[in-house]
Amino acid sequence: MSQKKIIEDLKKLNANQDIDLPAYGSWPASKHCFDDEKVVNALKAALAAQRPLLVRGEPGTGKSQLARAAAHVLGRQFVSEVVNARSESQDLICRFDAVGRLAKAQTLKTETTDDAKIKAELKPEKFISPGALWWVLDWKSADEVHTNSEYQLQRPEAPKGWKPEHGSVLLIDEIDKADAELPNGLLETLGNNAVTIPWVNQTLGNGTSIPPLIIISTNEERELPAAFVRRCLVLNLKLPAADKLEEWLVKRGELHFGERCPADIRHEAARQLLKDRKAAKDLGLTPPGQAEYLDMLRALALFGEAGEDQHTMLAAISDFALKKYPVLHGD
């Protein structure tokens, strides 16, 4: 069944698709354009090989949204986990509330001497909260554990009409924020598309469910372990070269805002971004990218609807959107 599902999904991924992404969980409504055949082929390769896709690139190139757009096109559940400096690999699988279980044990000792009742109330699975990897590897068991647990953390939102057999897409976002222990701790899980939950002695995945498409983003702030990178397919997501970037940005602006931001405004904003990108790169700073460009157009679209002159407001706000370091202001 899983091979048939993967073949069906491969046929759904095509270049030259403009996609409307509805609001989903904490993600706002947006648009995505699959206009690069290399990106589409990378997604297809990850699906077919059943390997994670590691997406490298500077901030603002659309790495995170790529996963959400892929899930939408494939009709799969979208689950995301944003990594931070305190994240551990175990958090992606599940969290165990040892403190809560200890407190429960102490309370029960004052209430009853019935050993059978105490044992039933202290079952480990009643103090487990499934993590992102558990949800995408085996939704049904994750949902059952979540429902019966006293330690209920976030439950992913399922799209209308979605069923576990439709599969999932998992985004592990900004993995470079964590120490090397996190990617190293995921080697076996990502290599086998399976994991064993120690407290319940249950193996998830391993051919028993539709293999998830796992997309992992990095901003290259920290080098990832070589063994981890070897487990992945790698997509280097870059903005077009400077001589092609203006037109590329203008088309992206049109996709998102249409005539709410006329062509001359989109071009002027793109030229300003090119100028500020060069200044940032010359100083060794992270340059503004697509995200900053779209933020600026979003503001300008509303200024226009409020009766403000968009050319005047572009000159007034570009410093706030594009120059994010004091040195770029001469400070």
TrEMBL record:
Coiled coil: none annotated. Pfam families: AAA_5. Residues 49-241 form the AAA+ ATPase domain. It comes from the Bacteria. Transmembrane segments: none annotated. GO terms for molecular function: ATP binding; ATP hydrolysis activity. InterPro entries: AAA+_ATPase, ATPase_dyneun-rel_AAA, CbbQ/NirQ/NorQ/GpvN, P-loop_NTPase. SUPFAM superfamilies: P-loop containing nucleoside triphosphate hydrolases (SSF52540). This is AAA domain (Dynein-related subfamily). The lineage of its organism: Bacteria, Pseudomonadati, Pseudomonadota, Gammaproteobacteria, Thiotrichales.
